[in-house]
Fold:
Amino acid sequence: MGEVYRARDSRLNRDVAIKVLSELLSSEPENLRRFEREARAAAALNHRNILAVYQLGTYEGAPYLVSELLEGMTMQEILRSGPLPLRKAIDYGIQIANGLTEAHEKGVIHRDLKPGNLFVTKDGQLKILDFGLAKLRHPEEDTAADTAPTLTIPGEVWGTASYMSPEQVRGKATDRRSDIFAFGAILYEMVMGRRAFHKETSADTMSAVLNEEPSHISGLSPNTPLGLQKIVYRCLQKKPEQRFQSASDLAFALEALSDSTLSSPVAGYEKKQPRTGLQLLAAAAGLVIVLGAVGLAYFWGRTQPQPRVSNYVQLTHDGQQKSLIGTDGSRLYLGLGVGSSASLTARGLAEMSMAGGVPRRIPILPSPDMIPVDLSPDGSELLIVDGRGAPPKGPIWSLPLLGGSPRRLGDIVGETAAWSRDGKALAYTNLGDLFLANADGTGSHKLVSVEGDINNLVWSPNGDELRFDGTESAGGLGQQLFWEASVHGTGAHRLLEGWRNPADECCGKWTADGNYFVFQSDHQIWALPRKSSLLGSDPKPIPLTSSPLSLSSPLPSKDGKKLFVVGETYRGELTRYDTKSGQFLPFLGGISAEYADFSRNGEWVAYVSYREGTLWRCKTDGSDRVQLTYPPLYAMLPRWSPDGKNIVFFEFWSSSDKPARMYEVSVDGGSPRELIPEDRGQQLDPNWSPDGSKIVYGGQSNDAASVIRIFDLTTRQVSEVPGSQGLYSPRWAPTGKYISAFSSDSTKLLLFDFQTQKWTDLAEGSFSWQNLSKDGQYVYVLDSRGGSTVVRISIRDHKTERVADLKNFLIAGRYGGSLALAPDDSPLLLRDAGTQDVFALDWESP
Structure:
C-alpha cells in the first residue's frame, strides 16, 4: 500500500517507521479508507504483541502514519527454513493469541492474519502487523451474524487464500472466529513447515479451505503432542461455532501445554547390580507405596466433570438498565437505576416471571433514595438502604413485598446488606467495615475491616462464612477482589489469590446445592467449586460462558436448573442539554466519550473514550483528532492548560492496586509525563490555576486522610490547603479567588476563600461531578437526591437552581455517569445507548 521509511523522532529521541501511501494509491478513495482504517485499528490497540502506531497525518497531500520501528524478520521469512521447534511454535502461538485477545476485546478483527503480517523481533517478541483489512466494531456487537457496515460488501472476498476462513471464502459475514481459523493455519505451518491449504491457484486453494482437511499432523510429524494437534484442528473447524470462541481461551489452551508434553524422553541404559534380599524387600515396599501414590494421584488428578451452561434464552427485550436482586422461586426481582449492572445504583424495583416478559415496576419504595440490595430467603421482604452520598449509604430498612409497613432495622447505617440463609442474622457494611447483627438490626458488632470498600455480601451455604467484593480503595478506584471471612470475625483472606485472571471479581452467588460459587469476571460468568476438605487443594475457577455480550449479575434459580444473568452491550452517546428547548442533543456527533474539557478559546476539546479510557483531543467540529494515551492506562478528567499547550489528567490502572497518579501530556502527542513521581499518595482531580503556574489536586472520597494539595510547577513544591482534611475533588475557580471541594461523604459542597483562608459550606445534597461555570459564579453538580438532576449553585448567595431533570435520561459512564460543561455552560452528559436484558441459561452440574 505504500513505502516505509526509517526516521528519527527528534522530539522524543527515538527511531520510528513512517509508512507513506503512494500518490497513485491515495487518489483512490478505497485505498485511502484502507490506509486510514489500518491506522485507526492499530492506534486503538496498545499491546506488546501488536505494532504500536503513534500518529496519522497528511503532508503535502500524502497520507502517512508513524509507528514503532521493528528489527527482525517476518514469520514468513522464518518459515522458509522449515518447521519451528515445538516450544518456539507454542511460544509464538501464545503471543499471537494474546495480541488477538487485545484486538478482539477492543472490537478489531484483523481479517488478514498470515505469516507475512507477523513480525519477530531480534529479542523474540512477536508483533501483529497490517490492519488494513481490519473490521472495527464494538466488542459487544461481535456476534456470529455480523451485519455491521464495513469496507467490504456481502459476496466480496478479502484476505489471503491459504489463511482465509470458509466464511471469508464465501464472502459471508465474519467475526473474531475468522481470525482464529487463520491462527490455526499459521500454527499448523509453524509445526509442519508447510501450509495447511495450498494449491496451484487461489481458486483451488479456496476450494480446499471449503472442502478439504489438511494433511494429518500425526502422519507427518508423529512426535507432535496430541494436545497441540487438538488445538490446531479445533481452530481449523469449518463451522465457526466449533472453533475456539475467543482468543483468550486459545491462549489459555496453549499455556496449559506442559513441558512434559513437549518432550519424548528416551530410556537410558544402566548396568544392573545384584540385589540382596533386604534390598528386594525394600524395593517391593517402595513399589507398593509408589503404586498407591500413583493411584491416588490419578484419582484426584484425573479430569473431573465440570458444570456447564447452555441454551441462552432472552427473557426481557426492553434494553433498560437493570440488575438481578433475587428470586423467590417463581419471580425475579430486579433493581432499576443508573450505571452498568455490575455497579448499578438501583433506584427502582421491578418483578417479572422466570419465564420472561415485560418487567413490572413495583411502586412500593417509600423514598426515591431507597436502594434494594437483598431479598429475604423466603422471598417475602426486601432489604433496602436509604442511601445518600457517594457511595450511597444510610439507614437499613426491611420492606414487605406483599403489603405492610417498612421497618427500620435498629439504628444501623450501611452501604449494603444481606440476610443469612436461615433469616436469623444480618450482615452489612459501611465502607471497609463488615458488621454482623440480628435480623432485626439489634446486637450489631464489627467483624472485620479491610482497606477500601466492601460490596456484594453473600453468606456461605452453612452460614459460617461471608464472601464479599473488596474494592482496593474507598473512593471506588481500584480492582474488585473476592474476600472471605468467618462470621466469628476471624480468618479474613483473599479468596482467589494469584488467580491468572487480572480482571475484577464481582457479584458472587452460591448455587442451590451449595456446591458452586458463580460470579462475574472479565465480563463473563465463572464457577468456583466448593473447597474440598480432602487433600486441602484450592479449587480453580471454571469458565462457564464465552459470550459476545458482557454478562453480569449471576443469579442461580432455587431449583438448581437455571442461571439468570444480565447481558449487556456498552455504548454511549455524548449529548448536550439545550436549556432553551429542554432537550438533549448529540454533541461531537454523539461519540461514546465522557469527561470533556475545552481549551480556553473554546476551539479544542479533550475527552476520554468510553469504555476504552483513552484520551483524545480534537477541534470542536470533530476534525484534527489525535489519540494521546493508550491502554492499560485509563485517563480520567483531562484539563487543558490555560495556554492550550498541555493537558493534565489522572490515570486509573484497571488491574492494579497502585494509587492514582497525575500526568501531563502535550496536545501534539507523545508520552505522558508523571507530574509528581516522588509522591506515592493518591493524586486525583488535577485542575490548573488560572495562570497555569499551579495545579490543585486531592485524594479520594470517603477517606478521612484525604486533603487538598497545590503543586507549584515552578518550584515543584507541594503545599496543603488549610482546613482541607477529609475533603476531595477540588476545582479552581476561573477567577482564582476560590477552590471548591466535596466533603468526604459527598453530602456537602464547600468553598475555600484564598483571602480569608477559610472554608464555608456552600450547599448540601448527594453530590458528584462538580464543574465551575466559565465566569466562576456558579458550581454545577449532579445531585442524586430524589432522582438525579443537574443543579447549579450560586457562589454569591448560595442559592440552588435546578438546570436539568434526568428522570427520563439513561446516564452512562465508567463510574455510572459524569457531568461536564460545554463552553456556553450547557451540561454535557453521556447517554446510555447500550442494552441490558435478562437471560436464562440452563445449568448443568455433575
